[in-house]
Design brief:
By secondary structure, the chain is α/β, with parallel strands linked by helices. The protein has a single domain, classed as STAS domain (Transcription Regulator spoIIAA). The protein is about 35% helix and about 30% strand. It contains four helices and five strands, in the order ββαβαβαβα. A five-stranded mixed beta sheet has the order 1-2-3-4-5, sandwiched between helices. The longest helix has 17 residues. The chain is globular, with a radius of gyration of 13 Å. The termini are far apart. The mean pLDDT is about 90.
Length: about 120
C-alpha cells in the first residue's frame, strides 16, 4: 500500500491510496496516514481516494477502522471514497459502511466533509 498526499489546504486533506490495503508493516507507531501527514493529522478532515486500490484484506480493514476511530476521537473525520468494486464489496459484506464514512465519489465525500474549506 502506498499513500500519497494529493492536496492539503490546512484543514481538508486529500490522500490517494494505491495497491493492496493490508496491515503488513503497519504498527501503532508507524501508521501510514500519520507518516504521510504528521502525528497531528487526526483533528483534520481527510478524504481518502481508494480508486487505485486493488485489494483490501481483513487486517487492512482493521487498520481503516482504527484510523477512523482515531480521527473521530480527535474531532476529525476520515472519509473513504471512489473504492473499486472489489474493495467496496468487501466493505459492504462486512457491513462497515455502517461504521465508516464511505462515499461513492470525491464530490460526495466533499459534501460529507462539509464542503471544501477555504
Amino acid at each position: 500500500m502506498h499513500i500519497s498526499k494529493v492536496s492539503d489546504d490546512g484543514d481538508l486533506v486529500r490522500l490517494k491510496v494505491q495497491g493492496r490495503i493490508v496491515h503488513e508493516g503497519v504498527t501503532k507507531s508507524a501508521d501510514p496516514i500519520s507518516q504521510t501527514l504528521g502525528a497531528d493529522c487526526y483533528p483534520r478532515r481527510v478524504l481518502m481516494d481508494l480508486s487505485g486500490t486493488e485489494y483490501i484484506g481483513s487486517s487492512g480493514l482493521s487498520w481503516v477502522v482504527v484510523a477512523h476511530k482515531r480521527f473521530r476521537s480527535a474531532g476529525g473525520r476520515l472519509i473513504l471514497h471512489s473504492a473499486p468494486p472489489v474493495v467496496s464489496d468487501v466493505i459492504k459484506i462486512m457491513r462497515l459502511e455502517l461504521v465508516l464514512d464511505v462515499a461513492e465519489s470525491e464530490r460526495e465525500a466533499l459534501e460529507m466533509a462539509g464542503g471544501e474549506s477555504t
